Amino acid sequence: MDQVLGLYHTAEKNLSPVIAVDVIKRALSQDKLYSFGELYEKLSAKVNENRELGEDANVTAWMKTLEVFTYGTWSDYVGMSERVQLDDKQIKKLKQLSLASLAAENKQLKYNVIGQQLQIEKPELEAFLVDSIYDRVVVGKLDTKRQLLEVTNVVGRDVNGRRLDEMEAILNQWVSRTEDILETSTSHADECKKSAAARKKELNEYTTAVDKINERLKPQTSHTTPHHLPQEPQA
């Protein structure tokens, strides 16, 4: 990326459509380069402020392609109504980036799912996966018996600003729900404590009342003088 950004900065002041497209193509073809966020942001700002760049159809087409490489997948490229022609090296890179997105969501990927998503025929698929592991796009192992790619790590991809806003909104909703749950749980716990204290007080009062009743029902000792039978007169 440093080499590509170096080219961009060299021509930044007088960036023509031809140079802008050339910088994009070089970035998409550069070995071991899988992050394009910084270049995309810089070029986007330049295109927005430069009328010549903004109105050039070729620049627009390649900027959309750069956006796909930065944030999207192979299916996004295929779905473009007007798309530029990629060479074999660029196609492979975009498919590797798409594999990284799949692997980030599922640590076990079936061969047939990968093949369908990336439009790679079965005879070429395993070689593609071996190359992707060798290039460190994904870290894992191939289970040929079960026809699986088992992923342990994956190269990081750029996240666009819109996606960050969505993620922040989701996180805020989660935090809000968690706070509500904690507040409800705390309130419920307080109510339980109050209820337990009230029941304990009632039980103590009941026990005291029972003790008093039992005390009153105990038999009392008699203090009256005993009666004596009259004695018979002696003969």
UniProtKB/TrEMBL annotation:
InterPro entries: COPS7/eIF3m, PCI_dom. Residues 212-235 are annotated as: Disordered. One of its GO terms (cellular component) is COP9 signalosome. Keywords: Signalosome. Residues 1-156 form the PCI domain. The keyword 4Fe-4S does not apply. Belongs to the CSN7/EIF3M family. CSN7 subfamily. It holds the Pfam family PCI. Coiled coil: none annotated. This is PCI domain-containing protein.
